[in-house]
């Protein structure tokens, strides 16, 4: 496997025309019993019209990060630090009023379970029309015309009839499309998709992915797409960020991450996915469990599960090191200050 070509040891530089600029985002939930550190210094940039896939095991902070971008967390118990710039706005400190203007209009979200976003008491047409009228000066008739257009756009068959349907009257795949229509109703600039196809059958999943990719390109939206499935990432991503214990441990062009991963965690995830496909059985999990987010270790948070770990891995969180192509990795076994490659990590090397 190609070693990381370290042209610089700087963290990835901010893209000049980034539409989304996240810098050192930290999110923690505070209660009397404990503090849960769910996001621990996430930074990335996303250009207009690009798709960033965030991959990682369950509990790595993917949903917490996404919900932070819409400020959906309970305010009292949540501490959010860092910069979350979307267009001109820093989501971390805009007023509640601006936030509710941005929510659903500039930034929209689709979820794994459509019933999270759809109201069971209203027809699909009403829900789309209401969303449009909340954000735009538009009358009911025009809003319903937009709703029909949107159902056509997301390829719902017999859209006139479906406008008058309630969510429970639709199949899972159609409900997912209806939720996408609601999310797109105000032509958002940024679409957040949190495992939107995980609950669907494989064939429906592919259809929804192809649809999302097409809409994203046609509408020129930026999209942040969360998944634990590397196959899904390969279908849809321009950029991939691998998240572990609330940090991005590897980031870069999708093809670099998926074809030439550098971090032992990314490699282990890819290996288990390939084994899964070859053997035709369920994903073989990486041995061990992610750290307790109430008590994060001092060093690399993957070290306790990493077959390459040595005592020096436990000392400090590895710095982010990028190559000239923007491929970033946080692992002292892959890179070291000064740009020297310490070792080309081989996945099945014996325990050090
Ligand atoms: N409101 C909350 N209060 C306390 N802990 C939370 C809250 N929301 C999420 N968490 C914790 O944050 C961690 C990351 O969760 P999440 O972002 O949902 O993971 P995933 O990567 O699977 O989406 C988990 O340990 C979860 O229990
Ligand atoms: Mg999640």
Question: Describe it for me?
Answer:
Strand 9 (about 240-245) and strand 10 (about 245-255) form a beta hairpin. The protein has a domain at about 120-185. An eight-stranded mixed beta sheet has the order 6-7-8-3-9-10-12-11, with helices on both faces. It has a four-stranded antiparallel beta sheet with strand order 2-1-4-5, covered by helices on one side. The chain is about 30% helix and about 20% strand. By secondary structure, it is α/β, with parallel strands linked by helices. The protein binds adenosine-5'-diphosphate and magnesium ion. Adenosine-5'-diphosphate (ADP) binds near residues 29, 58 and 59.
Name the descriptors.
352 residues, alpha/beta, eight-stranded mixed sheet, 12 strands, 21% strand, globular, disordered C terminus, binds magnesium ion
């Amino acid at each position: 496997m190609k070693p990381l070509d370290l042209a610089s040891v700087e963290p990835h530089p901010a893209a000049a025309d980034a539409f989304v600029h996240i810098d050192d985002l930290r999110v923690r939930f505070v209660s009397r019993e404990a503090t849960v550190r769910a996001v621990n210094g996430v930074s990335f940039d996303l250009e207009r019209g690009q798709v960033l896939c965030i991959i990682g095991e369950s509990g790595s902070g993917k949903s917490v990060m996404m919900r932070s971008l819409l400020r959906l967390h309970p305010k009292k118990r949540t501490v959010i630090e860092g910069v979350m710039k979307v267009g001109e706005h820093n989501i971390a400190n805009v007023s509640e009023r601006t936030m509710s203007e941005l929510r659903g209009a500039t930034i929209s979200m689709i979820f794994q379970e459509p019933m999270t976003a759809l109201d069971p008491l209203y027809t699909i047409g009403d829900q789309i029309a209401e969303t449009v009228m909340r954000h735009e000066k538009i009358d009911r008739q025009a809003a319903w015309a937009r709703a029909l257009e949107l159902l056509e756009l997301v390829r719902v068959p017999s859209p006139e009839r479906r406008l008058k349907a309630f969510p429970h009257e639709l199949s899972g795949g159609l409900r997912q499309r209806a939720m996408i229509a609601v999310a797109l109703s105000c032509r958002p600039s940024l679409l957040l998709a949190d495992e939107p196809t995980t609950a669907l059958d494989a064939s429906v999943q592919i259809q929804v992915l192809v649809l999302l990719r097409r809409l994203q390109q046609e509408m020129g939206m930026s999209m942040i797409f969360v998944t634990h499935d590397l196959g899904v990432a390969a279908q849809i991503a321009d950029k991939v960020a691998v998240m572990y214990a609330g940090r991005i441990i590897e980031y870069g062009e999708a093809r670099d991450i998926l074809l030439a991963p550098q971090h032992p965690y990314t490699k282990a995830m890819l290996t288990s996915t390939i084994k899964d496909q070859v053997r035709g059985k369920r994903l073989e999990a990486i041995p061990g469990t992610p750290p307790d987010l109430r008590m994060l270790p001092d060093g690399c948070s993957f070290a306790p599960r990493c077959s390459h770990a040595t005592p020096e891995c436990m000392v400090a969180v590895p710095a982010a090191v990028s190559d000239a192509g923007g491929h970033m990795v946080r692992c002292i076994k892959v890179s070291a200050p000064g740009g020297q490659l310490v070792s080309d990590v081989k996945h099945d090397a014996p325990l050090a």
